[in-house]
Design a protein that fits this description.
single chain; mainly alpha
Length: about 210
C-alpha cells in the first residue's frame, strides 16, 4: 500500500472511531463529543425538585390544652363529689353532714350536665371513672364511722372546694370558649356557696376551715 493509500485509510479509521465514541457518549447521557459541559451554580439542578414537607396539623394552643385538662379534671371531681355525697348521706353521724352530702349529689349532678355539654362542644372524650386520688379518699372514708367520718368528710370537702374554686375562677378568666366561660362562671358561684357552707359546718364541729 503506497503512502497516499495508507493516509486515506488512517483518516477513514479515525472518522469511524470518532463517530462511535460520540454515539456512545450520547447513549450514556453525556454531552456530544467536542462540546464542553457548562458549569455554574445551577448546573445539574434544572430538574431537581426537593420534596416539600407535608404541612403538619395545627398544634392546639396552650389555653386549649388547659381548657381540656380543666374539663377532664372537673368532671372527675364532680363524679367524686356525687359518690362521696351519697356516702355522707348514708354514714354521716350529724344532720348537717348528711344534708351537705345530699346537696353535693344534687348540685354536682347538675353541674356535671353542663360540663359535659362544654366537653361535647370541644369534641373531647369525658372520663368515665373518678381519679385514683378520689378512689383512695372514698376507701378511707368508707372505713370510718360516727364523728370520725364526719370530721374526715368535712375536712376533705373544705380542701377540695378551695382547690376547685381556684380552678373554676382561673378557667372562667382565661378561656376563650363562650360556653366554657359561662359554665365556669356559674360553677364558681355554686362552688363558692358550697365552700361557705362547709366552712360553717366545720366551725360548728370545731374544725379548721
Amino acid at each position: 500500500m503506497n503512502w497516499t493509500a495508507r493516509k486515506a485509510f488512517s483518516v477513514a479509521i479515525t472518522a469511524v472511531m470518532t463517530s462511535a465514541l460520540a454515539l456512545a457518549q450520547q447513549q450514556m447521557g453525556g454531552p456530544p463529543m467536542g462540546q464542553t459541559q457548562m458549569q455554574g451554580p445551577n448546573s445539574g439542578m434544572n430538574h431537581f425538585h426537593p420534596m416539600e414537607p407535608e404541612p403538619s396539623q395545627q398544634e392546639p394552643s396552650m389555653q386549649a390544652m388547659q381548657d381540656r385538662g380543666f374539663v377532664h379534671d372537673a368532671l372527675q371531681d364532680g363524679m367524686a363529689e356525687v359518690k362521696l355525697g351519697h356516702l355522707a348521706e348514708q354514714k354521716g353521724a350529724s344532720a348537717d353532714v348528711r344534708q351537705f352530702g345530699a346537696k353535693m349529689v344534687n348540685d354536682h349532678t347538675q353541674l356535671d350536665h353542663y360540663l359535659r355539654k362544654a366537653a361535647a362542644s370541644m369534641e373531647m372524650q369525658v372520663p368515665r371513672h373518678i381519679s385514683k386520688k378520689d378512689k383512695m379518699l372514698y376507701a378511707r372514708l368508707s372505713a370510718l364511722s360516727g364523728a370520725q367520718f364526719d370530721d374526715a368528710y368535712i375536712e376533705a370537702m373544705v380542701k377540695g372546694h378551695k382547690a376547685a374554686l381556684t380552678d373554676f375562677r382561673r378557667t372562667a378568666e382565661n378561656t376563650q370558649l363562650p360556653l366554657l366561660k359561662q359554665v365556669t362562671e356559674q360553677g364558681s358561684q355554686i362552688i363558692y356557696g358550697h365552700l361557705q357552707l362547709i366552712r360553717r359546718i366545720a366551725k360548728d364541729h370545731s374544725l379548721k376551715s
